Amino acid sequence: MDCNGWLIIDNKLHFHIIPFPGLNIEKAALDFNKIDPYSPLRTAIQEGEALKKIFYTVQQGIKIQSCTKAIVVAHNAAFDHSFLMAAIKRSSLKYNPFHPFSIFDTATLSGLALGQTVLAKACMAAGIKFDTNSAHSALYDTEKTARLFCEIVNRWKRLGVTDCNALLINGINSPFLCIFVIMSHPPIKLPLIHN
Question: Which residues belong to any copy of the Exonuclease domain (predicted)?
Fold first, then answer.
């Protein structure tokens, strides 16, 4: 959140991930996204290494904001949350900073606030430019999802929804208002939003 109480994107993390052994990768998905997960040009790192870096950054945000857990924000968030939790389990990491089941789903929120559930259409309805040629890139979609979430929350503030304002302004002591945006399309690319 900025000094005027508007929700903004604070930090970004961006990693290319080496596929874990036994990963079932759909060729059609790779063709669609134009990703070669084994290309040496990707400078990919192991999933566990990326998660450790993510955990560190998220835990720092949790500490700064006096939160206890981070909430995943994603478009169709149940899928992304389950993908993240499976990656954490595979990596046998401890001290998971993410809430085990609470999520903010921008597909649902944008359906409510904007009447659109498709990311591109929701962004356009919110006045956020969306390049369909860049869509389905994990980083691009994640950045648009983060902007969309901020716009929805800020739109409520502009409309004078005082409960939302109080929640965000007083959220510094709330255990569930450190927000982390994720899109799990390979490669994993993740921005972080602090309240």
Answer: 1-158
pLDDT of residue 178: 47
Asked if 96 and 90 touch (Cβ cutoff 8 Å), the reply is no
The dotted CATH code for 27-181 is 3.30.420.10
User: 187 CB contacts (<8 Å, ≥6 apart)?
Assistant: 15, 16, 17, 35, 37, 42, 44, 138
Strand partners, 103: 72
Residues with Cβ within 8 Å of residue 82, at least 6 apart in sequence: none
Catalytic residue among 14, 81, 136, 194: 136
Question: 185 catalytic, yes or no?
Answer: no
Residue 151 burial by CB count (10 A; 0-12/13-18/19+): exposed, middle or buried? buried
Tens of pLDDT, residues 67-86? 888 999 999 999 999 999 99
pTM over 0.85: no
